[in-house]
Specification:
about 425 residues; mainly beta; 21-stranded mixed β-sheet; eleven-stranded parallel β-sheet; 4 helices
Length: about 425
């Protein structure tokens, strides 16, 4: 939270002239609805409403464009912030000035916040950031930067971090310079029926536990769907993620992430990327026409960045199950340093649908192979092409002419030699 409640009260001293109506919730209970209309003093109206709101209240925006010049902050639990539709209620932060906060909405409530049926545009930083909330719902929300994809845009559209019980449904996220829909260091996550377009990463699940990502469309991004575990974060382990029934097509946008960002290394034309994660199941997806690769399964070692200062971090992949996906038209125009490295290693100008770096955790492997309960399993994906490009055996002493190790295109060792535990569906109380 960028400002304390007392600080905000010192700045915001006007009360809201539009007192909300009262709607029944359950028998004997009334819900206060504070209604907000567009106008010249809307910044003070809304921030005052967010400060003075009581648990169970609704802050309701009418139709129109609401212009703000600084971050809107909220720390009230059991609150609903809603509009009339993602194309009817627009919260614009185009006039946000220096030193007025980076986010559009900054939520630090302890529990149970719903944001629905509105749009957030042109925030200087992240569109909506939610920090350490148990029970956050985004429903019918749109985030965008109206100037299109640019490095100067905010990093994230929807950005819950260190949260529990996260539901993101029927949302649209575009033009973010990092990830349109990002869930980081969180637990119990559902991302469904969303559209992510023209972001660097469409949908990213990072260092999180128990996530279901399904029935989404990821298109026109640099990378469609990413499942990452990165070092130097509070929550070290990313595991138990299911990615299924998604359309992951034509994610070929140039990478416009600021230099130094983790996603700045994602090759343009990436469908799905699994990096240093475990217990991930990817199935029943349509993964088509991604120019670099349909899917990559890699350890953190592929980034060639140090991680030894984080002793609790595990840089390896294990327990990955990729099955029953439709792959088509991927890998025809590899781009970016990682893709170019692999094409040089295998001696071809194009890449197969699925690439694997062949890195096995030496603490878990036996004779260079993972035990059955930790295996990498890839099967029943039609005629999808595959290569294990053997990163450990790759000689990079001359980066211009890398010498390959034991390149293998044989899927048989990955098709039936595993018995990894089943990943159970995510359950969130009250969510069907």
């Amino acid at each position: 939270m960028r400002c304390s409640r007392l600080d905000l009260l010192a700045v915001v001293c006007l009360t809201i002239p539009l007192v909300g109506c009262v709607k029944p919730s359950t028998p004997g209970e009334k819900v206060k609805v504070t209604k907000i209309s567009a106008g010249p003093d809307v910044q003070k109206q809304v921030q005052t409403a967010l400060i003075e709101a009581k648990e169970g209240e609704v802050i309701e925006f009418g139709e129109g464009t609401f212009e703000f010049d600084s971050t809107l902050s909220c720390d009230v639990s059991d609150l609903t912030i809603r509009g009339q539709g993602q194309d009817k209620t627009i919260l614009s932060f185009a006039k946000q000035g220096q030193g007025t906060g980076g986010e559009g909405l900054a939520i630090t409530s302890k529990k149970n916040v719903t944001i629905e049926n509105l749009a957030v545009e042109d925030a200087k930083g992240d569109a909506i950031k939610v920090n350490k909330t148990d029970g956050i719902t985004f429903r019918g929300v749109r985030t965008s930067w109206t100037g299109g994809p640019k490095t100067e845009n905010g990093a994230y559209g929807l950005y819950p971090v260190l949260c529990q019980n996260v539901l993101i449904e029927d949302c649209i996220a575009t033009d973010a310079s990092d990830a349109g829909i990002y869930v980081g260091q969180s637990q119990n996550i559902i991302v469904r029926r969303c559209r992510a377009e023209h972001n660097v990463a469409g949908i990213e699940i990072e260092n999180s536990i128990n996530a279901d990502v399904y029935e989404n469309v990821a298109t026109g991004n640099t990378g469609g769907i990413l499942v990452f575990s990165l070092p130097d974060l509070e929550l070290k382990v990313g595991r138990n993620c299911r990615v299924y029934n998604n359309e992951i097509v034509e994610n070929n946008h140039e990478n416009f992430a600021p230099k130094g960002n983790a996603v700045a290394n994602v090759p343009p034309g990436t469908g799905v990327m699994i990096l240093a994660s475990r217990q991930v199941e990817v199935f029943d997806n349509k993964i088509k026409n991604n120019d670099s690769v349909g899917m990559s399964i890699c350890s953190y070692l592929v980034t060639q960045k140090p991680f030894d200062k984080d002793p609790g971090y595990d840089p390896f992949c294990d327990s990955i199950y990729v099955h029953n996906n439709t792959f088509e038209g991927n890998g025809s125009k590899p781009a970016g340093p990682l893709s170019q490295l692999v094409t040089m290693a295998i001696g071809e100008k194009s890449l197969p649908d699925i690439i694997y770096d062949g890195v096995v955790d030496p603490k878990k492997g036996v004779d260079g192979e993972l035990p059955k309960e930790l295996a990498i399993i890839i099967r029943d994906n039609g005629d999808a092409g595959f290569v294990d490009f053997d990163l450990p055996g790759l000689d990079m002493s001359n980066p211009l002419e890398p010498k390959p190790g034991k390149i293998s295109r044989d899927l048989k060792p990955f098709e039936g030699n595993g018995e990894i535990p089943k990943i159970e569906p995510v359950t969130i109380a009250g969510v069907k």
